[in-house]
């Protein structure tokens, strides 16, 4: 592995967690300044391709399968299991040509798909799926693979496969309906790249998963609210889609969360960014609508009237016309950029000011709460995104039987969102 080395983890505040990693797991630490020049020759891939070093989970070059390959701003996913490969290609091709709203919308939530190529790897011609590299524009890409669902075996799985899958990540899957097969994080306090593999992920439970997520977020001491809100903005959109879609059931599929630690480092240099001027005041749960937020020491209405009907909370137009105008202008200005997930989230949030929509009521109140935070973040001068969430790995994507909602998938998403929302509340 070139200049990478296996060294004991440094001991920081999360002593127990780091101590658990020390020695027990194959935790690899690179220093950020270190050149990561892998020896491509060892892996027998063409000269114009490289091993994809930002891969945090999935199949690797272990003699039976191959790891991801980096090529020209894309990644190539080698197909070693014919059926899984065909299923994944069929899935991408189907959603790329779909014209219905639900599947067209799904295109926004997955990496861009560029077809299939055959690559000579170690003398074998291997078919590969060509996908957008989600880490491409990030200087210090922090990546976590979160496998969604309690059940990770598909309807065609053999008895052995079921037994095998059920034996893994037991506590995490049972209690949270998701698990963490791997992640990497550029630690901003010591410039080290820390990698955590599936052996580490398999030890996690409902108490340690939040700690691992905080480690991934560089949030052991201070939680960056902008980062969490960016992730939540994407997660909420995926959640809303998963709540209504009845096309697919995903088994062993993941969410890939990616952010740029370089941008986080820049942001944390200024106190204001760590402690945003906007603070929501709330007691415990995000599932209760707020009536007031505090902006620059001034109380402002979040739009919740304090009254509930059997249709849900009654919302009023927020009382800050200036903010609302800025917000409208911003949405208007960015209307052309229809692929910008951030702006789409903002437009969705804007719609939650009205009751004339179809969204679930709890979603309305949650989004209402965060309209102001998103508004503030988007009016920052440097507003381009530096964090994103995409759905990946469709080797086990199946058509939904009887047009049922994919509860297995949805539950994992819901629980992940709850954790992120708790981080946000804790950071106030
Ligand atoms: N579009 C992408 N951009 C960047 N990295 C990606 C992308 N797709 C996958 N990866 C990286 O590759 C890893 C494995 O991806 P994926 O889950 O598709 O592979 P897999 O071999 O089918 O996994 P599994 O063993 O879970 O079936 C991910 O954890 C992630 O680190
Ligand atoms: O997390 P682990 O312990 O690495 O387990 C692997 C994981 O469940 C993969 O999703 C699966 O690949 P598929 O999705 O392609 O089935 C792989 O099966 P495999 O060993 O048969 O490749 C498992 O080994």
Automatic annotation (TrEMBL):
What residue ranges carry the coiled-coil annotation?
none
Can you say what this protein is called? Kinase
Protein origin, superkingdom: Eukaryota
Q: Which family does it belong to?
A: Belongs to the inositol phosphokinase (IPK) family.
Q: Which residues form the signal peptide?
A: none
Recorded source organism is Zophobas morio
Molecular function GO labels: ATP binding; inositol tetrakisphosphate kinase activity; inositol-1,4,5-trisphosphate 3-kinase activity
Pfam families, from UniProt? IPK
Record EC number = 2.7.-.-
Q: Which GO terms describe its biological process?
A: inositol phosphate biosynthetic process
Could you say which enzyme class this protein belongs to?
transferase
Look up the record and report any one GO term of the cellular component aspect.
Answer: cytoplasm
Q: Which reaction does it catalyse?
A: 1D-myo-inositol 1,4,5-trisphosphate + 2 ATP = 1D-myo-inositol 1,3,4,5,6-pentakisphosphate + 2 ADP + 2 H(+); 1D-myo-inositol 1,3,4,6-tetrakisphosphate + ATP = 1D-myo-inositol 1,3,4,5,6-pentakisphosphate + ADP + H(+)
Keywords assigned by UniProt?
ATP-binding, Kinase, Nucleotide-binding, Transferase
């Amino acid at each position: 592995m070139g200049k990478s080395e296996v060294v004991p983890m440094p001991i920081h505040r999360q002593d127990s967690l780091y101590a658990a990693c020390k020695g027990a797991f194959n935790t690899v630490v690179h220093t950020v300044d270190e050149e990561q020049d892998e020896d491509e020759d060892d892996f027998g891939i063409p000269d114009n391709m490289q091993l994809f070093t930002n891969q945090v989970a999935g199949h690797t070059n272990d003699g039976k399968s191959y790891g991801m390959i980096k090529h020209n701003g894309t990644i190539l996913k080698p197909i070693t299991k014919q059926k899984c490969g065909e299923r994944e290609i069929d899935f991408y091709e189907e959603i790329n040509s779909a014209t219905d709203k639900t599947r067209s919308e799904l295109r926004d939530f997955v990496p861009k798909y560029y077809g299939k190529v055959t690559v000579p790897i170690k003398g074998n011609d291997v078919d590969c799926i060509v996908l957008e590299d989600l880490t491409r524009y990030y200087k210090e890409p922090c990546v976590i693979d979160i496998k969604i669902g309690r059940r990770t075996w598909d309807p065609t799985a053999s008895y052995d496969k079921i037994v095998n899958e059920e034996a893994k990540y037991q506590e995490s899957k049972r209690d949270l309906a998701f698990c963490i097969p791997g992640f990497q994080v550029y630690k901003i306090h010591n410039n080290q790249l820390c990698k955590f593999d599936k052996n580490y992920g398999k030890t996690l439970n409902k108490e340690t998963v939040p700690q691992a997520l905080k480690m991934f977020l560089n949030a052991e001491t201070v939680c960056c609210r902008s980062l969490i809100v960016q992730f939540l903005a994407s997660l909420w959109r995926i959640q809303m889609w998963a709540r209504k879609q009845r096309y697919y059931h995903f088994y062993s599929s993941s969410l890939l969360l990616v952010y740029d630690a370089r941008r986080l480092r820049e942001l944390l240099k200024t106190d204001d960014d760590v402690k945003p001027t906007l603070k929501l005041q709330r007691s415990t749960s995000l599932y209760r609508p707020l009536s007031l937020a505090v902006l620059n020491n001034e109380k402002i209405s979040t739009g919740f009237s304090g009254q509930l009907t059997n249709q849900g909370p009654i919302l009023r137009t927020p009382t800050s016309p200036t903010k609302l105008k800025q917000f409208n202008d911003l949405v208007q200005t960015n209307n052309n950029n229809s692929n910008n997930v951030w702006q789409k989230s903002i437009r969705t949030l804007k719609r939650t000011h009205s009751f004339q929509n179809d969204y679930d009521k709890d979603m309305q109140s949650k989004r209402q709460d965060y309209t102001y935070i998103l508004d503030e973040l988007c009016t920052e001068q440097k507003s381009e995104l530096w964090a994103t969430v995409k759905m990946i790995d469709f080797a086990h994507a199946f058509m939904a039987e009887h047009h049922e909602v994919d509860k297995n998938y949805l539950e994992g998403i819901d629980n992940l969102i709850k954790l992120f929302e708790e981080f946000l509340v804790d950071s106030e």
